[in-house]
Amino acid sequence: MTEFEEKLRRQHEVSMHQELEALLATASKAEAEVSRKDFDGFKNLFHRFLQVKGPSVDWAKINRPPEESIQPYEKIKGKGLPENITACLNKLVVVKLNGGLGTSMGCKGPKSLISVRNENTFLDLTVRQIEHLNKTYDADVPLVLMNSFNTDEDTRKILQKYSHLQVKIHTFNQSRYPRINKESLLPIAKSMGVNGENTEAWYPPGHGDIYASFCNSGVLDKLLAEGREYIFVSNIDNLGATVDLYILHHLMSQPADKRYEFIMEVTDKTRADVKGGTLIQYEDHLRLLEIAQVPKAHVDEFKSVTKFKIFNTNNLWISLPAIKRLQDKNSMDLEIIVNPKTLDGGLNVIQLETAVGAAIKSFKNAMGINVPRSRFLPVKTSSDLLLVMSNLYSLDAGSLTMSKKREFPTTPHVKLGSSFTKVQDFLRRFENIPDMLELDHLTVSGDVTFGKNVSLKGTVIIIANHGDRIDIPAGAMLENKIVSGNLRILDH
């Protein structure tokens, strides 16, 4: 840095610290205590943000991971299971990332409370899976939810309904960081409140915050005191992320000095996954490479399916004692993701975030396992929702599995237009979910509705132009068809 840049950087930090202190002065004593811990993490991130300029990786140093560092799932599964799997389960904790809202699907409140199958929400399915595991193996696997200030209150109210089940549920809150003005690099918040003029002033800083929040909350120490050794972390909207006993056994069966501290489940890339983070070898470490870190000139290369064949599912198995060790030494090194946003009033802000998988390079004995695609079933859009609500999947004890009646294991490619974005609009347009067992590709655009017991096979494209409407009649069977024009079916 030049002397001028260094002075400017110092001035930004001084100004930021003064603003944060002024914000803390507006909080109650108890709130200020929690927020001070949050702000310590934020100051650290802000300091590093001011230091780092340009992409955080040198493209020339990127190598493919060595063969042995990413094991095929079949090899792990081939080892079978021990007689006493209960002992392994009792060392495990399931952690679900539950900080997101359902706004992208047109829903208010936490995303985990959206109904996805037979009136079951994401949270219902998660709790049912773990209860089934505990009952089947007479085990005691707890569930931990990492909430955000956006989801905590609503989630806690709902948790009461699970109190009679055989699952212990803990929650902790991830940090609350201030959004900063892109020009002044100062917080836009006027006080510590989250309502009124401050509604858009705060954000949860990505799931990489799990390590610090988990430690700060005291929940991590409590679980270590119970003798827990590993956490299985995943996004709550990934319906494929169930506890895999073979991977758990693989973790537990290593000698004490060769224990894996971090396992990332990866799966083969398809055209739909070109933006997903991938594992690379970088300076003798496994490292997660996200699209945001890639120099512009190399983005197309990053997206290619030939050079980077796998991507991160964000299903992670991490050693609890190792998290504690790295946090105590303050040696968790996570790359910063700078996320620019434009607020409703047109103000440009930036959010500084981190990703949970980026910590892989800080752990000893890290590895990837190339798992079947079925372990990655995220529901991000109404197109995904259509798949998981359909007869492509069957539901058993909270777990979704591909129907045995489907002849090939790939999921169809579904693209629903903007009329289907919001969940309530989506549900209004289907009298019931079509039979999709033999579907390969579905594209729907415009004002389209589906009657009862419709069957879709092969490639089906339905396009209603602006001003037109298409009602697919009840009982229709469409196989390799393009439907366009105008078709209204009205009750007589």
From TrEMBL:
Instruction: Report the SUPFAM superfamilies cross-referenced here.
Output: Nucleotide-diphospho-sugar transferases
GO BP field? glycogen biosynthetic process; UDP-alpha-D-glucose metabolic process
Q: Which residues does the annotation say bind UTP?
A: K111, Q174, G206, D237, K380
Q: Name one GO molecular function term.
A: UTP:glucose-1-phosphate uridylyltransferase activity
Supply the alphabetized keyword list.
Nucleotidyltransferase, Transferase
State if Hydrolase is listed as a keyword.
Answer: no
EC id: 2.7.7.9
Keyword Transferase in record: yes
**Which residues belong to the signal peptide in this entry?**
none
**Top-rank taxon:** Eukaryota
Q: Which reaction does it catalyse?
A: alpha-D-glucose 1-phosphate + UTP + H(+) = UDP-alpha-D-glucose + diphosphate
- Where, in this chain's numbering, is substrate bound? H207
Against Pfam families, the record matches this protein to: UDPGP
Q: What pathway annotation does it carry? A: Glycan biosynthesis; glycogen biosynthesis
Top-level EC class, please? transferase
* InterPro entries to which the protein is assigned, alphabetical: Nucleotide-diphossugar_trans, UDPGP_fam, UDPGP_trans
Report the family membership.
Belongs to the UDPGP type 1 family.
Q: How does it assemble?
A: Homooctamer.
Tell me the protein's name: UTP--glucose-1-phosphate uridylyltransferase
Phylogenetic classification of the source organism: Eukaryota, Metazoa, Chordata, Craniata, Vertebrata
